[in-house]
């Protein structure tokens, strides 16, 4: 999260500029054309959780602490938290977490769908990071362009009604049809061998 001691020294205009830049950064992370995975092994409070919410997938140690705690400091989430948290856990839970400023652990986050996986913390303190690497290794062998188009279709489709979302999916699918990777995937299936994707 933000350094509140540093923020306390800013005037109103500086705070507004700082939060706008932070929001833009989170939007840029969310718009990356590749999958992003947040590994939460310790605290992800305020801006730290907003950063995790900007990622596609989240993994947390069961002992991790998360929360949009801004209301406990006279603030509200300003880097996407009020928009991304409800889309992740639903409006009711998001309102409860934001209104109360409550901190939750990794297991609670998993039970409400805030994180994809929760793992017991290890002696090195990097259990979530290790699980995130395992998840990345599951994604890595897949066709890069198909994963990119899947991410685009999901992200854009969640912003519109289902009929428009289906049209977006159709446009993304059409872009994938002429790829070498699609042809390779079909050939590998016919030949009963693992595909060798090249990202084209």
From TrEMBL:
Pfam families, A to Z: ECH_1
InterPro entries (alphabetical): ClpP/crotonase-like_dom_sf, Enoyl-CoA_hyd/isom_CS, Enoyl-CoA_hydra/iso, Enoyl-CoA_hydra_C
Biological process according to GO: fatty acid beta-oxidation
SUPFAM superfamilies per the UniProt record, alphabetical: ClpP/crotonase
Key word Lyase present: yes
Gene Ontology MF terms: enoyl-CoA hydratase activity
GO cellular component terms given for this protein: mitochondrion
Family: Belongs to the enoyl-CoA hydratase/isomerase family.
Name assigned to this protein: ECHD2 protein
Protein's organism: Mesembrinibis cayennensis
Taxonomic lineage from the root: Eukaryota, Metazoa, Chordata, Craniata, Vertebrata
């Amino acid at each position: 999260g933000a350094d509140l001691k540093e923020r306390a020294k800013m005037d109103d205009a500086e705070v507004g500029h700082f939060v706008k830049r932070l929001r833009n950064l989170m939007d840029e992370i969310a718009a990356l054309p590749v999958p992003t995975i947040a590994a939460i092994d310790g605290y992800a409070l305020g801006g730290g959780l907003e950063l995790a919410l900007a990622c596609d997938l989240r993994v947390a140690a069961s002992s991790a602490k998360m929360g949009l705690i801004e209301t406990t400091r006279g603030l509200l989430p300003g880097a996407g938290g009020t928009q991304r948290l409800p889309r992740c856990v639903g409006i009711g839970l998001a309102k409860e977490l934001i209104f109360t400023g409550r901190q939750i652990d990794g297991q609670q986050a998993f039970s409400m769908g805030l994180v994809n996986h929760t793992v017991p913390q290890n002696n090195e303190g990097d259990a979530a990071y290790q699980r995130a690497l395992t998840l990345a290794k599951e994604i890595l062998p897949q066709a890069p362009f198909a994963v990119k188009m899947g991410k685009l279709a999901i992200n854009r489709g969640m912003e519109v009604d289902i009929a428009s979302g289906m049209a977006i999916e159709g446009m993304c699918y059409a872009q994938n049809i002429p790829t070498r990777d699609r042809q390779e995937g079909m050939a590998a299936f016919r030949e009963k061998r693992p595909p060798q994707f090249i990202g084209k």
